[in-house]
Amino acid sequence: MLTIEREYWNRGIRRLAGLDEAGRGPLAGPVAAAAVVFDPDWALAEEHGLLAGLTDSKLLSERQREAFAALLTGNPHVEIGIALVGAEVIDRINILRATHLAMARATARLHAPPEAIIVDGLPVKDLPAPSVAYVGGDGLSLTIAAASVMAKVIRDAHMRELDGRHPHYGFARHKGYGTREHLLALYEYGPCSEHRRSFAPVREAEANRG
User: Fold this and answer.
1) Is 36 helix (H, G, I), strand (E, B) or coil?
2) Bridge pairing between strands 78-85 and 116-120
């Protein structure tokens, strides 16, 4: 899981950022992005220690994600940048551009600019350093996996907060995804300010009530 990182570190590029997002598919809430930079010496020492088992957030349980997030947050050997881009912006510029905006902002919130960036999925424009995209990167790179976990944990926490403001929809349970429970609530109560009106199920639920 540090094979990609070793290629950069062996070339003298030590400030390597892993970048990933969470929340492109939900009908409500923000899209989140996280950028993570490991201290290479610490990561190499902990590859089979504290970092063992770190992988794509979708393959981890909520408890495992929270445990890794606690390990990473406040760790002097780890830098983290986080950004959320909300439903209003998603509707205005579309989900792809909003995702790329979140990724750029997350990278800009690191303590210092990275020398290079490795991204999960497809290429991302307008990043502040040269970047390479890896399909399935969150299962290939510990740095991208860490970004995947941080983006997911931060977004889930935000959705639990939104559940308190908009209790009719069950955000704390489904995190804004289009579950049966969520769709039924959408048709009963209509969209709230956190729903993405550019997404067809939300648009249809709003039209149905109108």
Assistant:
1) strand
2) unpaired
DSSP annotation of 190 reads -
Residue 26 structure tokens: 């939900």
Calpha distance 34→22 (Å, rounded)? 9
pTM attached to this predicted model: 0.95
* C-alpha dist (Å) from residue 154 to 49, 63, 132, 158: 24, 14, 24, 6
User: In degrees, to the nearest 5, what angle opens at C-alpha 72 toward C-alphas 26 and 68?
Assistant: 60
Q: What residues have CB less than 8 Å from 129, skipping those under 6 apart?
A: 17, 107, 113, 114, 115, 116, 117
| pLDDT tens for each residue of 119-144 | 999 999 889 999 999 999 988 999 99
The whole-angstrom distance between residue 77's C-alpha and the CA centroid of its chain comes to 20
